[in-house]
Design goal:
With 619 residues, the chain is α/β, with parallel strands linked by helices. It is 48% helix and 12% strand. It is built from 16 helices and 13 strands.
Length: 619
């Protein structure tokens, strides 16, 4: 053992495994509140004839003798149940049974688009549990999940078998008016809290079927909509007082004191799912309205800490892929892939070489900037594709193909007009592989990412958790997602193989005098187009009060993906560089990056094969 650990590659491999084990153990421990909450994965067939996946959080205090209040927790579009783990686990820590569902068309639920009935089916499931008090049900949802809150009240009012006593609507407008435009109290005597972020780049700019309302989200509290909401549907023309953010408004309706509450935290739309501020607002309102058996202060939270540990798992997963390659190329089976001599960077570029270096980074960034949103709009508005019904993966894949093609063209021109006579030898740089290494390259390229992802399944099986931070998630998945990952893989390979070639064969040089400076430039440059899109979006938001692309649903969706894409585009060249230095093989790293990104892109978002009719009414 001592001799084994003296090998730096094996030591790095052991450290990566340790990081992943620490991640899953600590995340699972925190999620269960140190054993006080049982977390179960469920998958049920609902009355709609569809399957629904979920995570059920059951506190030990919930028993048949002492049934507990319960709440459904609903994620937003493009997300899965795991993204709402902070809210669900904090509710459970307070003694409230929580069910985080996969909306239909997401995660482990049926791959169809339905009319928000999934959330009502979740309530029906909770109401039937022997340790749940069916008279104290709640619901909270973010973004599209917030619309589910309104939908369940409509179904309940139409005679549904279950109803909610309290709800938290976040990141989306509630209902203010009826079909004729009259101001109404759509939520009756239920307790309702709304969380409208001051920099919500998706919602609260305002728009309805009765004509547009325009306002900066940071000014939402001063709008007629906000006035009507906190005053139980009263016509804002009759309201003189300004809305007091954070004040609980009360009114007796049908013999019950109903509550309305508005919060306007300073954050963006997507941050809600992880924000300790908005999580505290959500769980505090529900614990007060539903009567939590174990009330805790808003700041008493473990969710964000748990997310930090799942992020450790992400780090360990990428380290594992690199270190596994290091170890395996030292074995007889893959020894042919080890570099025969130390891989050296190219000389620091000068003159035309400097122009080629910076020009290539700038041109690829411009192409990325200019093409992502048009592609996302095209794919998002196209009919469902049964071959690859995952809009996010298809958009990112096609975007990658275009960027990869541009990179190949630039590399060809670089070699033809500059590199051929300035130190770039195709065999020496690994562009032409040694004979007999292609099959081993492909095999190791498959082994490394799949072995790393195996730890995600271990985390899911033993601890009901995964590896993630915010929107960047590696989660366990079912067989259909494996098929779609395989279908999308050629698209991602057509980006990540050229990306590895560019990173290592043309841009690996001594610029700045330090290798890490070159790696930093190449990595950040790789994500520069996407960073530019986010910069324009939020700089415009801060300057004007309106996000740059707030009126285009497809673009807003792509913005929601972009945070994770930036991280992936920065990480990919680092992984590629580390593997290239050991193997002098740019294709190996390209295959590894392509596979892992294809899997991540196809498993943490929506999968919509077709749309189910909306005639189904819950009962």
């Amino acid at each position: 053992m001592g001799k084994w650990m003296k090998n730096s590659s094996k030591r790095l491999l052991a450290i990566s495994v340790l990081l992943m084990l620490v991640s899953m153990v600590m995340a699972g421990t925190l999620q269960s509140d140190f054993g006080k909450v049982t977390v179960k994965k469920i998958k049920v067939e609902t009355d709609a004839g569809l399957t629904m996946g979920g995570l059920l959080y059951v506190p030990d205090s919930a028993t048949e003798e002492n049934p507990a209040p319960a709440a459904v927790v609903v994620h937003g579009w493009w997300k899965t149940k795991e993204s709402q783990s902070s809210t669900a686990m904090e509710l459970a820590r307070r003694g409230i049974v929580a069910l985080a569902i996969d909306m239909y068309g997401h995660g482990d639920s049926s791959n169809v688009k339905f009319n928000f009935v999934d959330s009502y089916n979740g309530l029906e499931l909770l109401a039937g549990l022997p340790y749940v008090d069916a008279d104290r049900l709640g619901i909270t949802g973010h973004s599209m999940g917030g619309k589910c809150c309104t939908a369940v009240t409509e179904w309940a009012d139409q005679g549904g078998s279950v109803d909610v006593a309290a709800m938290v609507i976040a990141g989306t407008d509630p209902t203010y008016q009826d079909k004729d435009g009259a101001w109404i109290n759509a939520y009756g005597n239920r307790d309702v809290c709304m969380i409208a972020a001051r920099y919500d780049d998706f919602e609260y700019h305002g728009s309805t079927i009765h004509g547009p309302w325009y306002n900066a989200p940071r000014d939402y509290a001063s709008t007629d909509r906000a006035k009507s909401f906190v005053n139980f549907g009263e016509d804002p023309a009759n309201i003189q007082d300004e809305v007091q953010v954070g004040k609980v408004y009360e009114k007796e309706i049908d013999g019950r004191i109903a509550k309305r509450l508005l919060y306007t935290p300073t954050q963006i739309h997507s941050w809600f799912v992880l924000s300790p501020v908005s999580t505290g607002m959500t769980v505090s309102f529900l614990q007060d309205s539903l009567g939590a058996p174990n009330p805790l202060g808003a700041s008493n939270q473990l969710g964000f800490i748990k997310e930090l540990f799942t992020a450790v798992g992400l780090v360990g997963m990428f380290m594992f892929m690199v270190s596994l390659v290091y170890v395996l190329v030292e074995t007889p089976a893959f020894a042919c892939l080890k570099a025969s001599k130390k891989v050296e960077p190219l000389p620091a570029p000068k003159g035309k070489g400097l122009a080629w270096f910076w020009g290539a980074i700038l041109v690829t960034a411009i192409v990325s900037y200019a093409t992502l949103f048009p592609i996302a709009t095209w794919i998002n508005t196209a009919p469902p594709d049964p071959l690859l019904p995952i809009i996010q993966a298809k958009s990112l894949g096609i975007w990658g193909v275009i960027s990869g093609a541009v990179s190949l063209l630039i590399m060809f021109l670089n070699y033809r007009f500059y590199g051929k006579n300035n130190g770039i030898d195709l065999r020496e740089r690994g562009i032409i592989l040694p004979k007999g290494t292609f099959a081993k390259t492909v095999l190791l390229g498959i082994i490394a990412p799949l072995a790393a992802y195996g730890f995600v399944f271990l985390a899911d099986y033993f601890f009901t958790t995964d590896f993630r931070f915010w929107t960047f998630a590696a989660r366990a998945f079912e067989s259909d997602k494996a098929i779609y990952s395989l279908v999308s893989l050629p698209l991602f390979l057509m980006y990540y193989i050229p990306n590895s070639l560019a990173t290592n064969c043309f841009r690996y040089n001594r610029i700045g005098g330090k290798e890490w400076i070159n790696t930093l430039i190449v990595s950040v440059g790789n994500a520069l187009g996407c960073i530019g899109l986010l910069a324009v979006q939020y700089m415009t938001f801060v300057a004007t009060g309106y996000s740059r692309w707030h009126d285009n649903g497809s673009v807003k969706s792509a913005i929601g993906w972009s945070y994770a894409v930036v991280a992936i585009l920065i990480i990919a060249p680092i992984v590629a560089r580390k593997i290239y230095k050991k193997t002098n093989n740019p294709y190996l790293a390209g295959i590894i990056n392509g596979i892992i990104v294809a899997i991540i892109s196809c498993t943490s978002t929506s999968t919509i094969l077709y749309t189910v009719g909306t005639s189904y009414i819950p009962h």
